[in-house]
Every structure is written in structure tokens, then in C-alpha cells.
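Batch job 17 of 40 flagged for manual review because the log was empty.
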Amino acid sequence: AVVSTQSTGERAALVEAPWDNTNFYLALLGFVAFLFTFLTIMPHIMVHYSATVANLNLLAADVYSAIVGYFVFSVHFSPLYLLSIILILSGVLVFIHQSHEHSSGAVVHPATDEDVEQSQSLVEEPK
């Protein structure tokens, strides 16, 4: 029942969309370009950094949208939303503090195929 309700709601929104407006197509094209770029870059971020960095960056985008919403569009947020922004920023600060605390100053590079083969050869028992 939930799926049919959602699809019916989306169908109504598609019917009411301003298909004769050029700005609508430009916004749709911009969304598709952004989504393509995001989904193309995200695997590289995961390989070179970590899932934690990717998730913190996505959460930080919520903070930027809240700042723009407040100053540009005069949107007033609920106290719970403001609390979530504070928690996000404190999570970013804790992550930065922990990563600086554990780093020895050496640059860590992703594992190469040779590194994986070498570690597998160390684990294998001699015959």
C-alpha cells in the first residue's frame, strides 16, 4: 500500500510539472549532471580516503545548506535541527582530533596489488 501511494504521489507531481518551461529542463539537467558527477567521484573518495570522510562531508553539506537557508532564504529551523548541526560539527571535530592524534606524520597510501600479494604470502603456511 505504501509503494502504490508513493508512486501515485509522484505521478501527480509529474503531471503537474511545468514541462513547457526551459528553466525546468535546465534544473533537471543540472540535477542529472550533479548526480552523475557525485556517483563518479564517490568511489575515488572511498578508495583514497575512507567512508568516514565521505559521510562527514555529506553531513557537512547539510550544515552549508542550513547556513544558506538561514541567510539567503530566511528559513527558521527547529531546535532539533540546530541540535543536529551542532552534533555534526562536533563529530567532525572529534574525527579531526582523533586522526591528528593517531597520525605519525607519515602519508598513508592505499594498498597496491603488490602489497596485497605480499601480505597473502606472509599469511600462507609453507608447504
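Reviewer: the log was empty due to a logging misconfiguration, but the result itself is present. The mean pLDDT is 79. Unflagging and moving on to job 18.
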